[in-house]
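[INFO] parsing input record for Integral membrane bound transporter domain-containing protein
[DEBUG] input buffer:
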Amino acid sequence: MSTTRREIAAPHWLVQLLRSTPVPIPWNMVARAVLALAVPLAVGYALGDIGVGALISTGALPTVLSESAGPYRYRARRLGGATAAAAVGYFAGLITGGIPAASIPVVVAVAAISALISAAGSNASVAGLQMFVFCVLGTGQHVTGLRVEILLGYFCVGAAWSLLIALATWTFRATSPERGAVAHVYVELAAMLSATDEATSRVARHQLTTAMNTAYDRLLTARSWLSGRDATYRQLLNLLSASTPAVEASVAMVNAGRQAPRDVIDHFIATSAAVLANQEPPKPPEAPEDADPVLAALYAGLARITKGDDRKRREVQPWHKRLRAWAGSLISGPLTWFAALRLTLCVAIAEIVALLVPFERSYWITLTVGIVLKPDFGSVFGRAVLRGIGTVIGVGIGAAVLAAGGEGWLLVLLIAVFAGGVAVGKVRNYGILSAFVTPLIILQMDLASTGSWNVVLARLVDTVLGCAIVLLFGYLLWPGSRRPQVGGRLADGLDSLVKYVDKGLVLAPSGEARLERSRARRRAYRALADLRTAFQQVVVEPSAAGRQAVAWWPVIAGLERVADAVTEVGVTLGRGAPAPADDEIALLTAALAELAAAIREERDPAEMPMPDNEQLSGVVDQIGAAFDAVRGPDLVERAPLRLVRRFLPYHRRA
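[DEBUG] output buffer:
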């Protein structure tokens, strides 16, 4: 079986690498990027100094590159932190630029710091990347002949302008992102229940999991000092929490292969519209008298949405506790130090190579290395290849601009087009992002002042050298890069599933018990969704890691079906169906624990006794299928890297 999968996987790694994420174009982000980057250039040209406009536009780049969807307060923290970090890095680069003995140690140190602070979370990771990128860009600005304080002042003006653009609508659209996230959950519920075949319903269930995770993340990170706005957050969170029974019953309905009544689907769509319009949820339809337990649970879930929940306010963790947790993750997380060491080494090599290349402003080599090797952004091989492909395309665009004699208002128009392309590339594909960000930065920092064909050639050579350094020292020669790192993650996902089985198959007589069960379900589905994302990042590699990710893929699908089967049984509890005995649940959890142990220990799972209970037959069948999937491919072929497996318990993400 493993040979067949190897033959299938190898030709598809490039297809997977070039595949674009099928998401709608974020037109609001496109508009903000165009305004933030093109307006300073247009004003500068109108006032007779397009070079100054380009420098101010550069200050707007951190906000554009860090932009993401989410609550306004979350975005303010993310964008503000990224912009401040970029300013610090830019200043460090400016004061050491032109002095290799000073700039090289500073760039290497900033690279190490940016890798280490990535362990503190997504916002810290983005801030660390911007600090590194603009430190490197700052080292090349000494050739402009302007004083450090003037260059930094232009940068700060551009940064302030871009932040204003990004957050200008906060005052009158304060809760729109959260409201849209909750409404999207009901849209995905309707889509899942409308699916006519298993494959479509499986994809819809994945999208529902993503929508639920997004909604909870946005609401739990949205806090405001305005009482009225906070009341809206709490109302939406209560509504989302009250939807849990309906979500569970819908998953159970789909897992049983049954079609939901049309009035249920219409009700979910109407509820979504009501949430967007800030209106009360519509009255739920009445359940038919002959409804079976699953269908009755679905109609009861609709009624629960209308009633709402009353969740206790979550305590906000103080900053010093978050700082202590981050420091603890560094001390006990060898993989973070491992990634920081790799990034630091490759950046140091890039800085030395940049001294030997006969091109002006060869900071692009170091820039390429740092962006590709960012420790928490997926496959190093995939990012290196996409960066190379995207830059070749971007340099071709830059060459076309020069050939057309791009200047003046044409230059402003091109900056606007490239800015919009960056916003699209951020959500679609890293290669698309590289293809647009390359000519954008070339025009901002090079062509606006030099207009030389040599710049295009230099950027192409620099990028090729940077990708070569990454592929050679950060991938081919780096210990463990081409070995699988997926088995340990799969075992961690199984641990979450074991906890859900333990909580999801027992009666929950109290509200606290029901809340704990729903939390266990969300953690299990989130862990499986994160696992699927991690495998999709690895599957693009042509090495053993990519082949092994493909070989493990049926196991992930099997575990998702186990979770769905547990949800189906849990929905029927308390509606006439008795709860399974404790010893029967213990047999299921023991079987899943054995599966996790077998994956960690690189062996076939042992035969495990299973409960003989018709009520649990669906769960038993799916666990058996998961056992078969683990025994299928060669475990040696899929074995996780021992070093990584040993470190994984200390490197789990929340």
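[INFO] The chain has a mean pLDDT of 77.
[INFO] shutting down worker
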